[in-house]
Each structure stands twice: as C-alpha cells, then as structure tokens.
Write a structure and sequence with these properties.
The chain has 192 residues and is α/β, with parallel strands linked by helices. It is 39% helix and 22% strand. Helix 5 packs parallel to helix 6.
C-alpha cells in the first residue's frame, strides 16, 4: 500500500549519501532514528519502504508509533517481501529508507523462499535503484546460540545478509545505545 504525502518545510543544507548505506544495531539501539536523520539530511523527497506486517495488536502499535515519530511528510510504501518493484519506482531526486532488512528476511524465511536467491534479487534491486537507499538491519549475532533450529537458521541468515549488504554499501554505521559507530565510509559532515 502506498501513502503519498507532500514534503514541507524549508530545505536544510543537503548532505550527500552513497548509493547504498547500511545502519545496523540491536533492538532499540537507535538505528532507525539515525537512518531517518540521514535520509532527512539529504534534503530530498523522502520515501519509506516498510517491510513490517501487523500480525497482532502490539505490532500494529509499533507501526503506528514509527509513523508518528517520522511525521507525515514521507512517501510510505508497505512491501513485506517483494521489494524490487518499489526500488525500481523511486525517482532519482528522492532518497529511500528501507526499514528493515531483518523483517524482510523473516518474511522470506516464513514464506519458505530460497534466501540466497531472494537476497540476490534484493541486492540487484538496490544496485538498480535510481535514488540513494539507506537500509536498516538488526545485528542479532551477539547473543547466545538459540536453542531451536529455526532461530539458529535465522541468526545465521541474518549474519550473511548483513555481510552482503555491508560489502555493497558505501557507508556502514553500527548503532549502540543511540551512538553511531562508523564501520565503513564516513558520516556526512554535521551528522552526530
């Protein structure tokens, strides 16, 4: 579903982003907030590609809170799994925030799709996008080894996906306790 709104407000000095940026972190680390600030700092029309699905009331509340936090001046597209058409439709003068690769991977695994094939398609679509893209993804490999096979598979696939995204990205930032740690590239000047 696409929700289009108008970008308002006076333009701030624009920053430049590489074609692909990756923002990683744990739950509630501040990764989405940093990604939103990066996108906003470009001064371009802002697109938000949401991969979450509202499976229950708690998830519906989370999604609503994210929308409220972002504000109304984003073009929001909801696509839980097939991201290629959305990435192909983003205009050159815009910037896209994909939030998040972790939920996208969850959707791929639950659909019993071939993860490597779907990841290849995603990376090709990211490469072909006319606008810069900032991808948010979770770092899930720092915890204990999960006790069940599905959780272990997910953890491993998430680590592989993050590695492939990081290899393709010009900017990779890890976020911990709200603090960015640049792993690759450089944060635009003036960004905390």
């Amino acid at each position: 579903m696409i929700r289009k709104t108008t970008v308002t407000g006076s333009p701030a000095p624009a920053v430049s982003l590489p074609p692909l940026s990756l923002v990683l972190g744990g739950a509630r680390s501040g990764k989405s907030r940093l990604a939103e600030r990066l996108v906003t700092a470009t001064g371009r029309a802002r697109w938000y590609l949401a991969t979450a699905e509202a499976w229950d009331e708690e998830m519906s509340r989370r999604i609503a809170q994210h929308r409220t936090d972002r504000g109304a001046d984003w073009v929001t597209v909801e696509a839980p799994r097939d991201l290629s058409p959305v990435l192909a439709s983003v205009p050159e003068g815009a910037v896209l925030l994909l939030d998040c690769a972790t939920l996208w991977l969850t959707n791929v695994i639950l659909a019993e799709a071939e993860v490597e094939t779907e990841t290849d398609r995603l990376l090709a679509a990211l490469h072909g996008c006319a606008a810069p893209v900032v991808v948010v993804s979770n770092e899930v490999g720092w915890g204990i080894v999960p006790e069940n096979a599905l959780a272990r598979r997910f953890r491993d696939e998430q680590g592989r996906l993050n590695q492939r995204l990081a290899a393709a990205a010009g900017l990779v930032v890890g976020v911990m306790a709200g603090l960015p740690m640049v792993l690759k590239g450089h944060l635009p000047e003036g960004m905390p």
